[in-house]
Amino acid sequence: MPQPRGNSVEIHCFVKKSTDAHLMVLLTKGLQSWRKNEELNTDNFPEWYHQLISEQNAIGWRQLFNGRWSTQWSVIQHQHYQQKKTKNQTGHKWSKQMLLVIWDLWDELWKCRNSTEHGDSITDQHAITRGRLLQELKDLYADSTNYVPSDRKFLLQNYQEHAKKSYLSISSWLAFYIPILKNSQIRAAQNSTTNMKSLSAYFSTKLPTMGPRRQQKNHCTPTLATQRRPLFPC
User: Fold this and answer.
1) Which residues of 142-180 are buried (b: 16+ CB within 10 A; e: fewer)?
2) Residue 18 Cα distances to 82, 83, 84, angstroms
3) 102: which residues sit within 8 A by CB, 6+ positions away?
4) Rounded-to-integer distance, Cα 101 and Cα 4, Å
5) 9, 3 contact by CB (below 8 A)
6) Are 180 and 154 in contact (CB under 8 A)?
7) What is the pTM of this model?
8) Do the Cβ atoms of 49 and 107 come closer than 8 Å?
9) What does the alpha-carbon distance between residue 15 and residue 9 come to, in Å, rounded to a whole number?
10) Which residue has better confidence, 30 or 208?
11) What's the pLDDT tens digit per position in 122-181?
């Protein structure tokens, strides 16, 4: 990570050496918790720091960058100075110095990010931009089988041939053909499902009809004995 320059180097070294050790750990852990969208747990720190953690949780750790610090930061650091018998330093002054250190480091990180993302020189910027264009071009060729067949004529023989073109040629081609090829993908997907029957269409949902049931005839004829048999025996 780039180091602070100028007077900020002296401030950074002094603050790091003279700061209460628990405060440095607390500051680091608090910012890490903020990035994870979590609250810092007081259980991992001595009770003396619990009020600070609770207040900064309520204020928000993101607010440290805006200079909104719990007053407990300066109170605890001032107590640390008194224990170490440090002269000409107060907790309030330390808070201001720490804020300057954070701002300076944040500025250096931002410059480092911009350098990586956009490049420091015109040559670097051109190389980064061309790299992005080639990646877009490569993605379009990778999806070539997903285009409507008649639209594949807009592509060259392969990606490698197209990548040899100049930066201006590729940039202009992408600006014109990306919308066309994206639309071609949509139309190809729609065409693939047109006139396609669902699986249930191949099976009949109607149950076979059955004629009226014939009533079975009783072919047994009653005998004389059965006709004269009484219902109840005597």
Assistant:
1) eeeeebbeebeeebeeebeebeeeeeeebbebbeebeee
2) 12, 11, 9
3) 64, 65
4) 8
5) yes
6) yes
7) 0.48
8) no
9) 10
10) 30
11) 787 788 888 889 999 999 999 999 999 999 999 999 999 999 999 889 999 999 999 999
The candidate with the shortest Cα–Cα distance to 158, out of 144, 171, 146, is 144
Q: What is the DSSP string of 86-118?
A: -SS--HHHHHHHHHHHHHHHHHHHHHHHHHHHH
The residue assigned the tokens 């602070």 is: 4
Hey, what are 43's tokens?
């259980």
Could you read off the pLDDT of 47-82 as tens digits, one per residue? 999 999 999 999 999 999 889 999 999 999 999 999
Q: What does the pLDDT read at residue 1?
A: 40
Residues 182 and 187: their CA atoms lie apart, in Å, by 9
How big is the CA angle at 40 (ends 36 and 42), to the nearest 5 degrees? 160
DSSP 178: H
CA atoms within 13 A on the CB side of 199: 0
152/187 Cα distance (integer angstroms): 13
Instruction: Measure the CA–CA gap between 109 and 120, rounded to whole angstroms.
Output: 14
